[in-house]
Structure formats: C-alpha cells, structure tokens
Amino acid sequence: MKPRYLILSLVAVLGIAPMVLPPYYVTLLNYIGLYTLVVLGLVLLTGVGGMTSFGQAAFVGLGAYTSAYLTTVQDLPGWLAWASASPWLTLLVGLVLTGAVALLLGAMTLKLSGHYLPLGTIAWGLSLYYLFGTLESLGGHTGVSGLPSISLLGWEMNKGEEIYYLIWAVLLCAMLITQNLLDSREGRAIRALKGGQLMAESMGVNTFRSKLVIFLISALFAAVSGWLYAHTQRFVNPTPFGLHMGIDYLFMALIGGVASVWGALLGAGMLTMLKQWLQDLLPQLFGTTGNYEVIVFGLIIILLMQRAPGGLWPLLLRLVPDAWKPRKAAKALASATELPRRELPTAGEVLLEARNVTRRFGGLVANNDMNLEVRAGEILALIGPNGAGKSTLFNQLSGVDTPTSGDVLFRGQRINGMPSREIARMGMSRTFQHVKLLAEMSVLENVAIGAHLRGNKGVLSAALRLDRAEEAELLAEARYQLERVGLGDYLDAEAGSLALGQQRILEIARALCANPCLLLLDEPAAGLRHKEKEALGLLLSRLRSEGMAILLVEHDMDFVMGLVDRVVVMEFGQRIAHGLPAEVQKDPAVLEAYLGGAE
Fold this sequence. Notes:
Blueprint: H1 3-20, H2 23-48, H3 56-72, H4 78-81, H5 87-109, H6 116-134, E1 144-145, E2 150-152, E3 155-157, H7 160-182, H8 185-192, H9 197-202, H10 207-233, E4 235-236, H11 243-256, H12 261-286, H13 292-307, H14 312-317, H15 330-333, E5 350-361, E6 364-375, E7 379-383, H16 390-397, E8 405-410, E9 413-414, H17 420-426, E10 428-430, H18 443-449, H19 459-463, H20 468-484, H21 500-513, E11 518-522, H22 530-545, E12 549-553, H23 557-561, E13 566-571, E14 574-579, H24 581-586, H25 588-593
Parallel strand pairs: 7-12, 7-13, 10-11, 11-12
Antiparallel strand pairs: 1-4, 2-3, 5-6, 5-8, 8-9, 13-14
Helix pairs in contact: 1-7, 2-7, 2-10, 2-11, 2-12, 3-5, 3-6, 3-10, 5-10, 7-10, 8-18, 11-12, 18-20, 18-21, 20-21
C-alpha cells in the first residue's frame, strides 16, 4: 500500500479520535502508541536483523525511571540539578543513559549466537528489572509518584486526551524514521544479517556494527516510550518493566508482522484490545479471576506461526490491489549519476597469490603447501574430487579462514587474517557454493547489497532521507548488473521465487555490483540448464576480455575445459597438477585421482 495514503488516513483518524471517543478508549490508544514504539525497535532487531530480545521492557524502565528520579528527587547533585527543570531535559539524560547501557550490553551480548543471544537478553533484562525494585532511591517496589506533566509551548498535558497527541506524533515520526532506514543502503546491510555473517561480511558489511546500531536504536525507542509512559501515568513502579512485558512486546511483533513497520502498530493494537476484552470476558466464563488471557495468547501465537508465520500485516497486503503496492524498482529508473568504476589491472598482472598455504584442523591437514596464482584477464579453474580441500582453500583466499602457515597475497598485500569486508573493499568479490540470498527481498534489493561498499551515507542520513541521490545511484548500478547477466525482467520479483539456476546468476550480479577486479565463483554452473550454462560462459568470457580475473571452482568438466585459461587440480589438500586445460586432461595423475583412473 502506498505509505503516504496510509499515513494521511491514519493521521486524519487519529486527529479526531479524542474528540469522539470516551476517555477509556483514548487511554487504550495511548497504550497502543507506547507499545508500538517499543515494538518498532523489535522490528529492526528481531524481524529484520534476526536477533531475538526479551529485554526491551528493561529499556522502557530506564527511560521511565531516569525521568522519575530527576523530576522528583529534591537534593540532586549539582552536575545533574539542571535536568530537573523540565521533563524534556530528563528525556535527554534518559536517552544518553540508555544509549550508554545499550552499547555496553550490546558489546557483551551481540557476539553471542543461536539460543545464547536471547538467553543473554533475559539475563540483563531481569538484572535491570530487579535493580529498579531494589534501589531505595527509586522507591523500591513501591515506586515513584508525583511526576510532573509534560508541557510544550505553554500547553500542559495533564490529561490522557492531551498527551495523546504527543504520543502519536512521536510514534509516527519513529515509524517514518524506521521505514526510511529500511529503504536505504544501511537498511539493506541490516537485512543482510539474516542471510548470515559470512554473506554480509563478504559484501562489505560490518556485521557487528550493524547489530550494535539496531540494538541501540531499539533501546532508544523503548526509552522514549518509557519517558512518555512515566509522564502519562505520573507514577512509576517496576511491574511494567519485567520479563512478562518483554514477552508481550515480542507477541505484538509476531502477531502484526515481525519484519513490518505497520505490523508493529497492528500487533500492538490487536494484543492490547484483545487483552482488555479477554480480561473482562474470561473471568465471567470461568467464574473466577485469573490470567486466562495468557493461555489464549499462547494458542493464538501457535496458530499464527503455523498459518501466517510472517504475521497478519503481510497477510493483509495480499488482499491489497497491485495498483496500490509500491514498485520499488522504479526508484532505480530515475536519472542517477553513474558510480565510479575501478580501473582494472593490466592483463597478466598477478592479483591473487597463495604461497605455501597450509591449513590444519588438529591432526587433519586440509591444505598442504598449496601454491597458485590468479592473473588479471584470465579464468583459472580450481578442480578436484570431493574432499580435496578446494572449499578450505577458497575460504582462505577470500578471508573467511586463515592459513595455519603460508601467505595469501592480494594485489601484493598480505591478507592473512584480514576481515572479508576489507578484502572486498580492495576489489575481491565472491559467490557461494550454497546460494546465500534474502528470499523475501526483491531481486533488485538483493543485488544492491553488493554495492554496499560503494556508498558512504550513514544511519542518520538514511533516517532523514538525505541519502536519496546515493540510493538512486546504488539501485541504478544494481539494475545495470541484473540486465548485464540477463535478469533485467525480474527486478521486482522476490529472490526466493527464482529457480536455483537464476539464483546463482543473481549471486554473480551481486558480486559484480561491488565493482571487483577479481571474482571468486564457487560452482556457479551448478543447477543451470544447458542454455543457461552457455549464457554464463559468454558472460564470464566477456568479463575476462574486459580485464577481470576469475577464480572458478566447478565440477562440470565440460563447462570448465571449454572456458578457462589454466587449471589447478587438487587431491587430499595438495596440488597434483596445473597447466592448460588440454594438458591437465591428459595428465596421468589427474586421470587417476579425479577422473577415475587412466586407460
């Protein structure tokens, strides 16, 4: 649905809501707005970034308690006394404090993976919750009362109907900022996290930085929600900031659509309204009080994960006419300045060199004293039977792994231990044996991830839409590379809808988008039909004629021998032959080891 129409309609409805609704429903809308602000952070953190957090309620508490403490304590230290003058100043302090805590906690927990990460968020979430209830200066479990109301330009927001407009104005700004961020170079880097660290780093994304950025943003959204909550209630105690609320926020995200900005609003609204209705209805049905709504929510989540794992918002979008849906590829059709291109090295220049590379895993020697050179303007094939050590060597050449001994040089510089993203910046790009794409993103957006290193606009520029010129350039480059490899008709298609062969071609387009001088292709012809292999061969030949160096790992011998300039053959981690394709095909050692024996 076109965002501007949705936003204008929503603003119109929200503007008149307090005038026509009873105070009870206005209060519910306030809660929905506050909850949505927290869930927006989870859209970035969990839905887009793939990191589950149960601790967001603790950040809400930080924002709330910071303001409560600063506005109610009389004998503040001199260096903090200035902040007590206005809730707006306490908001500033709360954001700084929350940001510092988020950076500290993020540095400790974001390096965890698998189930350890959510367990880590539970640990620090509970720690902050118990801290709120233990400190006497924060009122213990009794809490803090007597908070002042917020005033803006002389307007005192004493009632729910008055602070309502501030809550929803802040929320709409946060939703706009989040959507702008997701529709940007930085947003694609964040989305790339779900494709795995290996893929993202190879495309030039600093994955830890991206994780920390969205962790920080989600914490700041939660802190603003806490600040608004504190001055809406005029009272704060630890109860709303416990683990149960952290779980509720995740429920809201899952129900609405964990990867959708508008799903955050839908989920928060549905869960809040449903909870109020069930809390009134279920005790009457069962004849006794209790938290029966939790049971219902659990059943709803299970049903939803089975029937609509993406949440309700994507489900609703399927009902929207295609004419109302934005065509993202149209952005790339606008006139844009062409991105600068790397000057390719002189033909014959050695670009990549492995010198006596050995890789041991305990007592297993995966590569033993391997040597090879890849020169500009040539295609070198690395072949060998399964288990020969090709993938291990490939990973060392691309920076994924580090040799036990020996050196890997790229353009004359030793790159042992250098992060993949830095090697990519130097001009090396790669594809993967097992296709690594973001299936739910469009073909155009997937390829644009490859151009990440060719932009420099940051998070703030993206949030404020100051990156539009650069964004048009990056998308235009992605479109050019797709047309170059024959996928120009699939710009708006979901990458997951393509056939396996097309997905492999898409990976090559993404690699080319990084403007490399060396391509590392891991079994690019696997899954391709005969005509697709012919087209791939023509593409690689054209790249070679332009001066591109290509290292090819491939099992299709007909494809390899008719295309490449030189061949290196491996067996049991060692090089057993190298030379021209015709020479290698006749080598007795190759026939014995790779082709099943000489006749």
